[in-house]
Amino acid sequence: MSRKSESKNSTVAEQHIALLALERTFLDPNVINTSLTYQRRQKPKIIKAIIENFCSAAFGAATIGRRDNGGLWSVDGQQRMTAAIRMGMETIPVIIFESSGAAHEASVFLYLNQNRIRVNAAEIFKAAHKEGHWAMRDILSTLHKHGLDFTLFAKKDVNSWPNIRAVSTVQTIYNLDDGNGHLDDFLAFLCATWPGNTDALQNAVMSGLSYFLYKFGSVIDRQAFIRFLKTNSPNRLISEANMTGAGNRYISVAKVCFKLYNTSRVGKKLTNKQFDDVFNKNN
Question: Of 84, 177, 199, 226, which is most buried by a Cβ count within 10 Å?
């Protein structure tokens, strides 16, 4: 960062620190207004998640602008405020600053959000695992069973086998059957097919191949397909998926798996109806 940028950022930070560090108190969320001229719209999934996983210690304080006429306006924490209202909370913790109007509040909103570091999937997983969340511990123990790990726990060579970067992808695979064994089944297939191949741990490869196995695993000849895939590379799945130019990346990879399976030397091929039932009716 240049000295000019540092100076500018320092000045902006000082201005906002001065206007934010004013008053901490509790307010009835029903008396706080929201201006959609600068605020995000309500996000039902986020609000639902806050309600279902409510923790008062993690709720934090909403940032509120108090205008000259006494009106109170939400600047940061709208989703939490909405959740609080739906849960019937009488008060919520807030930080109040003196606002000169919507433009001033929009400036504070931008400052708070444009520099905010979002918590990523790996950080969430690590915290939940440490907390003792049973699903997170089940996922990690399943990885360890197959000699794999997440990069966030690795001490060296974090970007190569057996370390997986795509935490959210592994969680999605686990959730396909609500943790009833599909992740274990998929990892056994993956490790038998491309052991030690870091390319096999790519997001699209894992998600697409796992989806194919989830949908067709009970009817395919797995050993024949493993033998066939061994003569190919994970990157072939990616390159052929890119050529399809269709839809979601992992669905494209799953479709390529379907095609390659029928290309391999198996006695009973998958049918067009099976393809339509999975890819055309459910997606």
Answer: 84
| CA gap 135, 141 in Å, rounded | 10
Give the chain's domain count.
Answer: 2
Residues 79, 226: Cα–Cα separation, whole Å: 47
**Structural domain containing residue 21:** 3-114
Angle between helices 167-175 and 182-193 (to 10 degrees): 120
Cα 116 → chain centroid: 17
Answer with the one of 86, 114, 142 that is the final residue of a domain: 114
Residues 59 and 40 in one domain: yes
- The Cα 229–Cα 249 span in angstroms is 19
Helices (H) and strands (E) in the chain, counts: 14, 6
Half-sphere exposure of 124 (CA within 13 A, CB side): 9
- Please tell me the pTM assigned to this model: 0.64
